[in-house]
Write a structure and sequence with these properties.
The complex is a heterodimer of chains A (304) and B (208). Chain A is 40% helix and 28% strand. By secondary structure, chain A is α+β, with helices and mostly antiparallel strands. In chain A, a hairpin with a 2-residue loop joins strand 1 and strand 2. Chain A is globular, with a radius of gyration of 24 Å. Chain B has 208 residues and is mainly α. Chain B has a domain at 8-150. Classes of the chains: A alpha+beta (304), B mainly alpha (208).
């Protein structure tokens, strides 16, 4: 009996000590960790827009984030867009509730700043204030809109879709006509040497410059990647490109409307990325067009 | 096993050669087969294991007199889990660049047999400093095994080393697939044992 008590006490104490250590480290490091994640996203965004250390982003580049929620009220569900709106000089948030036919149902002012809105808990708290039960809401996705001066520069879509093994997380940059500016694979666990090659320049850069019309009918073809196209896709990676400056444009237009060349031994991963991207862009284009028409009709003073 | 009489240098070299975790003790074979597809993976996982092994060994050696013998295995697991979590959080917070590369590997370590086994047969019977050197030896030995496996598999499978193209073509894609891990580990283990045999035969011949 004594033995059992000693064992129980010993185990409890060790667990408590371990929990204490882990908990305190978590509390200490949490802020820095969140900050790093934020910086990470920021870097991916700037990288996709073509801004690097040697070519820094202009000072009038602004990034605004729209959060989309699905609101359900009994049997009916509506879409809730958290839109950044201009409030004098600062930016606030407003919730626009839009039904499935694209009509504005309701709008609310939200008490969150853009900095706080990047926290899921802060967002839920702000939404709970205006969406009283029995209405419930679930987070769907977010979109970052890059604005340069008065003009929309690009849409940045973080998204995920199933790959060959697990989900592939990507960040996609589109110009205002939904042409792809760039694709970045942020997280993937495909097979090394096979599916993991999706993060290589010679695969992901194939999406660059595909127009919306072409994208809707984009396929994966099982043909070897032509050498000159590979050189073109991998250019500017620290080493001297063997393609003369004048020929870049020729190669670009030659492969502009080509389908995606599949990776050797990873057709499923290649197809997953292509279909995923296709899906993301077509859905997004539909949604943003509807949202834009609501915004212009209702004169919502959006920041983007 | 009584407290060790080996010098610090012997403790380190013991982990790398005589009791190499992968090739001699045949422990932690899952990562050796699964993750050793590239040199970089091996290096990252090796570094992570090195840190966790050293920290856990020192902790257990320090508190060994307070652990009830019946609950020593849960305590070891808890210690390892705590250190893994701490390292994971600290890396994520203060070294984001390293975390980007090592993040997924650090979380894997909790279940590694080599660390628990080292705590059980070495750290709980020896002083903190001896455990520290033993941890370093085991960590380096594991890293050495992973890197050499990664070297072979990356070179034969993808024709690259550390991501740099050395061969210019891909000899045998098969080597980066999980199944090839078994072949590589087996063949390299045999080579390692053979070299050890030859080496020790000479040493024994000298003694006579």
């Amino acid at each position: 009996m004594k033995e059992i008590i000693r064992i129980t006490v010993g185990l409890t104490v060790s667990c408590l000590i371990a929990a204490l250590v882990m908990g305190s480290v978590f509390v200490i490091t949490d802020n820095a960790k969140k900050h790093n994640e934020h910086v990470n996203v920021q870097q991916t965004v700037l990288g996709l827009l073509g801004y690097t250390k040697s070519r820094p982003a202009p000072s009038d580049l602004r990034l605004y984030t729209i959060y989309r929620y699905i609101i359900s009220d009994g049997d009916t569900s509506t879409l809730g867009y958290m839109l950044p709106v201009l409030k004098g000089d600062s930016v606030g948030y407003q919730l626009a509730v839009i039904d499935l036919d694209g009509q504005l149902v309701n709008q609310f002012k939200l008490g969150v700043t853009p900095e706080k809105a990047s926290e899921p808990t802060e967002r839920s708290a702000a939404l709970k204030e205006v969406l009283k039960p029995p209405r419930t809401f679930v987070y769907a996705d977010s979109t970052i809109i890059a604005k340069l001066g008065q003009r929309r520069l690009a849409y940045l879509l973080p998204g995920e879709f199933p790959g060959f093994k697990t989900f592939i997380d990507v960040m996609l940059a589109l110009d205002p006509s939904f042409k792809i500016i760039g694709l970045e694979i942020t997280e993937q666990e495909e097979d090394p040497g096979l599916g993991a090659e999706i993060k290589q320049d010679y695969f992901k850069n194939q999406f660059r410059g595909k127009s919306f019309e072409k994208l809707k009918a984009l396929h994966v073809i099982k043909e070897p990647l032509p050498e000159e196209y590979k050189e073109y896709l991998e250019r500017g990676k620290g080493r001297e490109s063997p393609i003369p400056e004048g020929e870049l444009e020729i190669i670009r237009s030659k492969y502009q409307d080509k389908d995606i060349y599949a990776l050797t031994g990873a057709t499923i991963s290649s197809k997953a990325v292509t279909d995923g991207v296709k899906n993301m862009v077509t859905k997004f284009a539909y949604r943003i067009t509807r949202l834009d028409s609501v915004i212009t009709r209702q004169h919502i003073p959006v920041a983007f | 096993m009584p407290a060790t009489t080996k010098t610090n240098f012997q403790l380190v070299s013991n982990g790398i050669l005589d009791e190499n975790p992968i090739f001699r003790l045949a422990l932690s074979m899952c990562p050796a087969v699964g993750i050793s597809t590239t040199v970089m993976n091996g290096l990252m996982l090796g570094t992570a294991v090195l840190f966790v092994q050293v920290f856990s060994s020192c902790t257990i050696a320090a508190i060994k007199n307070h652990i009830h013998p019946r609950i020593r295995i849960p305590t070891y697991t808890l210690t390892i889990a705590t250190w893994v979590t701490v390292i994971d959080l600290v890396l994520a917070a203060y070294m984001p660049a390293a975390y980007k590369e090592m993040g997924i590997f650090v979380k894997l370590i909790v279940a590694f047999a080599i660390i628990t086994m080292r705590l059980e047969i070495f750290a709980c019977k020896n002083s903190v400093s001896a455990s520290f050197w033993d941890g370093i030896g085991m960590g380096l030995g594991f890293m050495f095994g992973m890197v050499s496996l990664g070297l072979v598999r990356e070179l034969l499978g993808m024709g690259t080393i550390l991501g740099y193209d050395v061969l210019g073509f891909r000899p045998l894609l098969f080597f980066v697939l999980p199944a090839a891990g078994f072949f590589c580990v087996g063949i390299m283990m045999a080579m390692f044992n053979y070299i050890e045999l030859v080496y020790n035969r000479k040493k024994r011949a000298k003694q006579v």
